[in-house]
Amino acid sequence: EAGVVQSPRYKIIEKKQPVAFWCNPISGHNTLYWYRQNLGQGPELLIRYENEEAVDDSQLPKDRFSAERLKGVDSTLKIQPAELGDSAVYLCASSFEAGEGQETQYFGPGTRLLVL
Amino acid sequence: AQSVSQHNHHVILSEAASLELGCNYSYGGTVNLFWYVQYPGQHLQLLLKYFSGDPLVKGIKGFEAEFIKSKFSFNLRKPSVQWSDTAEYFCAVNDRGFGNEKLTFGTGTRLTIIP
């Protein structure tokens, strides 16, 4: 079974430039998550989708970050414009609820972003 | 809000030593508990998980964890570590029953095994 796919794996941009990350979840997983992981920290949730609907975007900095999951499968996370503090690893995860609140999230390899 | 503490930031052990990594969480409701591992250059992988039932959970590669509800803890153990266990280990918790599938992670413990 293919895992969560993310691209690109690495991205270096100058501040104020836009950047986009792409994620394709595990087939059949209806829930998709974007996390940000700063150096020396654990991942922190940015947004969660159930199918096409963003059900939790409370931690997404909406002034510069946006995300979409138009057909309920793959998703794109965008930053415009990027700031120095956005340098981090952006992780995508997906899950399929097995019932009674029991679900396991599976993570992709992440995109390592460096903003200069 | 839920918080997760991993008190050991960096642990260094010799091969064959026993391992215990601490994990404590703050919210006392019904929770799901996870340990993820990130080997050098690789992505986060599930090591083991607890949803309900037997509080002693066995995972891959000889790891196990014990859920102690009264202590809000979910410590990870392995009786004899190998050089290949060198990695970063993350404890994660989500709160069941509120439609909240958000995982709250600890800051991670870097484990270095000396051959």
What does this structure look like?
The complex is a heterodimer of chains A (116) and B (115). Chain A is mainly β and 116 residues long. Chain A is 0% helix and 47% strand. In chain A, strands 2, 4, 5, 6, 9, 10 and 11 form a seven-stranded mixed sheet that branches. In chain A, strand 7 (65-68) and strand 8 form a beta hairpin. Chain B has no helices and twelve strands. Chain B has 115 residues and is mainly beta. In chain B, strands 2, 5, 6, 10, 11 and 12 form a six-stranded mixed sheet that branches. A four-stranded antiparallel sheet of chain B has the order 3-9-8-7, with no helix packed on it.
Distance between the termini of chain B: 41 Å
Biggest beta sheet attributes of chain B: 6 strands, mixed
Beta-strand residue fraction of chain B: over 45%
H/E element string of chain B? Answer: EEEEEEEEEEEE
Q: How big is the Rg of chain B?
A: 14 Å
The proportion of strand residues of chain A reads over 45%
Please report the two chains with the greatest interface, counting residues with C-beta closer than 8 angstroms to the partner's C-beta. Answer: A-B, 24 and 25 residues
Distance between the termini of chain A: 37 Å
The major sheet of chain A is characterized as: 7 strands, mixed
pLDDT < 50 stretches of chain B: none
Write down how many β-strands of chain A occur, each being a DSSP E stretch of 2 or more residues: 11
How large is the count of helical segments of chain A? 0
Helical proportion of chain B?
Answer: under 10%
What is the molecular shape of chain A?
A: globular
